[in-house]
Structure of HTH-type transcriptional regulatory protein TyrR:
Amino acid sequence: MNINENFLNTVIDNVDTCVCVTDMSGTVIYCNRAFLDYFSLSGDIRGREFQQLPSDYRDFSQISACREEHRRLVSRKYISGGRRVKITTSPIFSGGNGEGGDDIYFIEAFTFIDGDPDKNTPDSSSKFDRLVLGDAAMLEINQTISRIAYFDSTILIQGESGTGKSVLARHIHNNSSRAGKPFITINCGSIPENLIESELFGYTSGAFTSASRKGKTGQVELANGGTLFLDEIGLLPFDLQAKFLQLIQEKTYTPVGALKSKTVDVRIISATNLNLKEQIKEKKFREDLYYRLRVIELFIPPLRERAGAVELLTGFFLEKYNSKFGTSKTITPQALDILKQYTWPGNIRELQYLIERLIITSGGDAITSDDIPPLHDSESAELLSGSSPSGYRADFNSAVADFEKDMLLKAFRSHKSSYKVAEALGISQSKASRLLRKYSIS
C-alpha cells in the first residue's frame, strides 16, 4: 500500500492528541485538527512564528528547550484550565533517524491524561474552574454570567490579585456564542511600554529598526472572531488608550507603520485590581475608556470572604500536586483550620503556592500544623505567627475562636443583622457575614 502525505494528514487529524511541528527557527510547518481546536485557532497557521501562538500553549511548550538540547523531552504538566497532559517533544532530522540531515524539525504532542480535550464547549469547565466559580459567594456572579455571556458587550472584571479574574474571563468566553473561537490574553503589565502597541496591533515590514521583514500579526487580529482578554488594563499606557477606545467603538485599528486601518470582530473583556476611578482622578486612565469598558461590571470577592472555598481549593491543590510529584499526602484537621483562619491577602494564588510548597517540604504522609510556615497579614499575623510550640498555638487558636464567637453572639443578639453587627464591631459587612456563617449564628 502506498501511503501519501494526504493520507497521513487525515490519520493525524483524527487523533485526540494535539500535534505541532516547527522548523529550527520556530516557524510552524504543521499542526493537526486537535491542536487547532484545543487552542482555539482557525484557518491555516503554517508560517506563523512560535511567539504568535497562543500564550496558553507557549507557557507549557518544550519546543524552545528541545531546540537548545536536541534531545527528546517528556513531561507531565497541568496546563491552563487545570488539564493534565503528557508533553512529548522530539527533534526530527531530515536525513532520517540520525543526525545526518541538513534540516532539523521539532514535533510536539500533547496527550490528555484526564479525558476529553475539548475544553471550548460550555459544559467542559475544569474542576478548578468549578471550584473557583462555584461557591455560594460567587452565586450572584454566576447568575449574571448566565444572562450576559451571549451578548457581545464589554465586561470589566474587578478584584484583588489572585482571585481568579482570568478564570472568570475564560469561563465567560466558553459560555458565549464565541466558544470555540480564539481566546487571546494580553497582560498589560508584563509587556514593556515601548512594545505593547506592536504586540497588540502588530506592525508592517520596516515599521521600526528592529522590525521583522515579514511584519508581525498583532494579538488583536489573532483574536478575530473570538475574545480579547486584557488583564491589568489599568496599566495600559495612557497614550495608547485612545487607540484602544477606537478599537472598542469602531472595531478598527491600525498596525504600527501601516497607512490603512483594519476591521476586526472581537469581544473585549478586561480585568484590573486597581481602582480605576482613582486612576482617572490622577490622569492615568481615560474616563471615556473606563465607561466603554464597563458596560458590564463584575466584582470577584477575595478568598477571605468566601466561606468554605479554602477547604475545597486546598483539596483540589493537594490532588493536583500529589499527582505532579508522585506523592499521596493529606492534611490534618488542625492544619486545615489554620489555613481556614488565615485571611489570604494573595488569595487563591497564595493558597496554591503554599500547598505546592507543603507537599514538597513536609516530612510525613500528612501535612500538620507544624509544617505550616508563619503566615503574616494584618488580620492573622499574630494568631498564626508560629512563635509558640504547636500545642500552645492550637490551644491559643481555640481560645481566640471561642472569644470571637462569643463577641459575635452578643453583637447579633443585640443588633439582629450583619450590617449592624459589622458597625458595632468595626469590621466590614462582608467579614461580619462570613464570620456569622462560620459559627452558624442566625
Observations:
- Residues 306-367 form a domain with the Helicase, Ruva Protein; domain 3 fold (CATH 1.10.8.60).
- The two ends are 77 Å apart (CA to CA).
